[in-house]
Design brief:
It is a single chain. The strands form three sheets. Strands 1, 3, 6, 11, 12 and 14 form a six-stranded antiparallel beta sheet that branches. It is globular, with a radius of gyration of 15 Å. The chain is 0% helix and 54% strand. It has 167 residues and is an all-beta fold. The chain has one domain: Jelly Rolls (Sandwich), CATH 2.60.120.
């Protein structure tokens, strides 16, 4: 099993309603299986606030997507955590800022609500062993998850990372 970290730096999220296209350059991560049967296990989700104003309530959601994204990846940094591990032949697909088909957050697939003040605040969710969030395959609605802002609040600039493993 190979464990990875996907990190995004200095994004200002845009609040988006469920089942609406996420806006390029304003969501923090999208994880999608690299094949129709690949499983990803999400171990940790972290966000750190970098907002310049004193009040930046950020309503953030890690959710399954009802429409999966396609297109190029940019603004995302992916690293194999164990330097001695061998990466599998097919890795997870990561989209972030330049989707051709825009991901859409499912209205029934919210997994985590991670609200915090992006003015210097942090939020970190860590799964207990055996209770990791899973992504299976690469089609809607079990094959992709996104970390994005829900409508409401005034999200400020933030950075994030998501730790996951391929099984």
């Amino acid at each position: 099993m190979a464990r990875y970290n996907v990190a995004t730096t200095s994004i200002t999220p845009t609040g988006t309603l469920d089942t609406a296209n996420l806006v390029d350059s304003t969501y923090l991560a999208v994880l999608q299986g690299g094949t129709g049967t690949q499983q990803l296990k999400v171990n940790e989700v972290y966000m750190g606030g970098e907002a310049a104003s004193s009040s930046s309530p950020s309503v953030m959601v890690f959710s399954r997507d009802s429409t999966v994204g396609t297109g190029t990846t940019s603004g995302v940094y992916t690293t194999l955590l164990d330097a001695t591990a061998t990466a599998p032949g097919t890795t997870a697909r990561l989209t972030n800022t330049n989707g051709t088909t825009k991901p859409q957050r499912s209205s029934t697939g919210h997994l985590l609500h991670l609200s915090f003040n992006a003015y210097g605040g942090i939020v970190r969710w860590v799964a207990r062993p055996g209770e990791e969030l899973t992504i299976v395959g690469n089609t809607a609605s079990l094959g992709e998850c996104s970390l994005s802002a829900y409508s409401g609040g005034t999200p400020g600039q933030m950075s994030s990372h998501v730790i996951f493993e391929l099984t």
